[in-house]
Amino acid sequence: MGSTIFSRKRDLWGGAFIALCGALTILEATSYDIGELARMGPGYFPLMVGCFLVALGILIPLSPDPDEVQDELIEEKLPQPAQRDRVRGMACIAGGIALFIILGSSVGFLPATFALVFVSALGDTSNSVKSATILALAMTAFGAVVFSWALQLQFPMLRWG
């Protein structure tokens, strides 16, 4: 019981701190030109990040108690991934992000997005190479439509040389 109270208090203080950081980000972002969705100014992205942080700070104390969730998982006897599988997942996600950064600047958005999704999907042991490829192709096509056509992002889709 004592650890539950401490956990809830920690969630409350953590959420308050994150919401405060978000509010300060919003305050600072308003000193820049915000612009609009079609023509974003330098303050637009920090404003959105600040709003996200405030919302997250509000939601954290409302989240279920981790000890209760863990007890429910133990009662349901859900399989827990082995340490090796968790490390594999983290390494694949980090590797996918690194590949996106490297490939995005050298060969463009499409190959970078494919590499990001493909490598990250391989972090889940239940995914096969075939399913990771299908997911990567679908997300690359979706990303091209959203970021190139809908948002008109100034990021080259393919770059040679």
TrEMBL record:
Provide this UniProt record's keywords sorted from A to Z. Membrane, Transmembrane, Transmembrane helix
| Bilayer-crossing regions | 12-32, 44-62, 93-119, 131-151
The record, for Pfam families, names:
TctB
Per the database record, which ranges form the DUF1468 domain?
13-156
Provide the protein name.
DUF1468 domain-containing protein
Recorded source organism is: Achromobacter insuavis
Task: Tell me the classification of the organism that encodes this protein.
Answer: Bacteria, Pseudomonadati, Pseudomonadota, Betaproteobacteria, Burkholderiales
